[in-house]
Specification:
By secondary structure, the protein is mostly beta strands. The chain has one domain: Lipocalin, CATH 2.40.128.110. Helices cover 13% and strands 51% of the residues. The chain contains two helices and ten strands; from the N terminus they run αβββββαβββββ. Strands 1-4-5-6-7-8-9-10 form an eight-stranded antiparallel beta barrel. The longest helix is centred in the N-terminal third of the chain and has 20 residues. The chain is globular. The two termini are 40 Å apart.
Length: 197
């Protein structure tokens, strides 16, 4: 085998390796370790916090092209704020949150975040621009990437990514106006994610 053939093979192998490394990578959310949460001011005095269980989604990351996509589907009927007793109106606080005054889970069982653009700072995504659909209304939402780490799971060795995303919405923008301003209009969102390749 002559020197030119060896160089050609080496260049081809190098190109194949670079292409493989630059390929977009897709990860599916692990619902048992993905936890969207929210916090909202109550009466100007305190903060009420809640979580949603059973969220699903998928994220694709291409660090070489500095691009990606993500979609998160959050079941509104799973809302839990940690208070299981009746509020005095014959229902619990979470039952009220599932009702028409708030999430109206019977008619709108999910809210969905879909990305339109990943914004990079250096080699990692810094924010994700997209839309949130809640109560049948779709509005722009940018989520900040507070943390992102990818690598093999320490036990199973499967490729995974973990991330913390955060943003803020005005619930009245989506038609959820009950109790404003005593119950805050501005709602802070945090989505903690684990996802597997």
């Amino acid at each position: 085998m002559n020197r030119l053939t060896l160089l050609t093979l080496a260049a081809a192998a190098s190109l194949a390796t670079a292409t493989a490394m630059a390929a977009p990578e897709t990860y599916t959310f692990d619902s048992t370790h993905t936890l969207p949460s929210f916090s909202v001011n109550h009466l100007g005095m305190s903060t009420v916090r809640g979580i949603f269980e059973g969220s699903t989604g998928k994220v694709t990351i291409d660090n070489a092209a500095k691009s990606g996509s993500v979609e998160v589907t959050i079941p509104t009927g799973s809302v839990f704020t940690g208070y299981l007793k009746s509020t005095g109106a014959g229902r619990t606080r979470d039952e009220h949150l599932r009702a028409a005054d708030f999430f109206n889970s019977a008619e709108f069982p999910t809210m969905v975040f879909k990305s339109s653009k990943f914004v990079y700072a250096g080699d990692k995504p810094a924010s994700i621009e997209g839309t949130l659909t809640l109560l049948g209304v779709t509005k722009p939402l940018t989520l900040k990437v507070d943390h992102l780490s990818c690598g093999p799971h320490p036990f199973s060795k499967k490729d995974m990514c973990g991330a913390d995303l955060s943003g803020t919405i005005k619930r009245s923008d989506f038609g959820m106006k009950f109790g404003v301003p005593a119950i805050g209009d501005e709602v802070s969102l945090v989505i903690a994610v684990e996802a597997y390749k």
